[in-house]
Design goal:
Elements lengths: L1 H17 L11 H6 L1 H18 L3 H10 L5 H4 L15 E8 L10 H18 L3 E10 L7 H9 L3 E9 L4 E9 L3 E6 L12 E8 L2 E9 L16 E4 L2 E4 H27 L6 E6 L7 H9 L1 E2 H5 L17 E5 L3 E8 L10 E7 L3
Parallel strand pairs: 1-2, 7-10
Antiparallel strand pairs: 1-14, 2-4, 3-4, 5-6, 6-7, 8-9, 10-12, 11-12, 13-14
Length: 363
Amino acid sequence: MIKIISVTVICCLLLAYLAPYVRPQTIRILPFFGLTYPIFICLALVLLIYWAFARSRWFFYILIAILFGGNLHFRTLSIDFSDDKPQTEDASWSVMSYNVRLFDVYNSSTADRNKSRDSIISYVQRINPDVVCFQEFFHQDKPSAFSTRDTLIDLMDYKFYHERYSHRIRNRQNFGICMLSKYPIIAKGDVMFENFKTTDNYCIYADVVKGADTIRFYDIHLQSIKLQQEDYELFGEKNKQAGGKKSTLRLLIDKLRIAYPERAEQAERVMEHMKTSPYPVVVCGDFNDTPMSYVYNQFNTDLVDSYRETTTGIGVTYVGRVPAGRIDYIFHSGDLGAYDFGIQRTAFSDHRAVHCKIYKKSL
């Protein structure tokens, strides 16, 4: 039995190594191996110890399978030895990316809803970023207690902003993404996804000027799996569906299977647009995908993951009911550098905010 388990773990690891390089549309099951990579690498390490004590040649089979992953392992477990910083703090940009889950606007308790909104705004105030990119942003036109964009502008002196919403006329509600900046925005626009008329996922960009430097910032929210409340039931319970019954696990797999190809296509569109930028770029957002994914690899090929550049650890950013790990990122061009990366400790949303400082490297 232990040998069968070992063979299974080796095969699953090898398939996980392929996931970042193969489009989900090509082999639809492959992204699931990338998603479950942390499980199989942990099992491989346990088996490695077991076979070492057993003094079996299977120790070498497991070891070779682990080593075959090479640097891919360091996408999930980051190890940083760099302490690069600009000569002066004035040369850096403070940047934040935050999926705020609509400021908890659908919470049935008014007190809890207001507490979540106020806690999120207070946290942004404390970090005080020069540029902040929000996903799942909710703003209600004045007069309203949830005029969140205007509140942030008033409290933090954000004079410039760019946003994209799906609008609801009733109660003047706006749902989408928003970028706020303390420095002038000289140009802005959208990266249109193929299903932009029906999706709640967007990408916007803005060219921001600070002193003599201009950086193009992208605020991106890639395809969600759109879990509803009823989908969060314990695995194994049954949900009635038209034409039969499906377990929650099967529903989750179906939603993931649909979302992976859409995310891949969206990521490719953003990368193609990014290549036309006349300025260095910073990409902030909720990718809804892990470091062992095709989507992550699209950005990692041409850009630098600021978390891996500056931090040691795993860096879990999603704290919802479905384990996902690190799915919120700040990437930047190679001619930029990053330092002081931080992940919010106390979560007020189902995502933790991520923030760092970006600077232009000396030639």
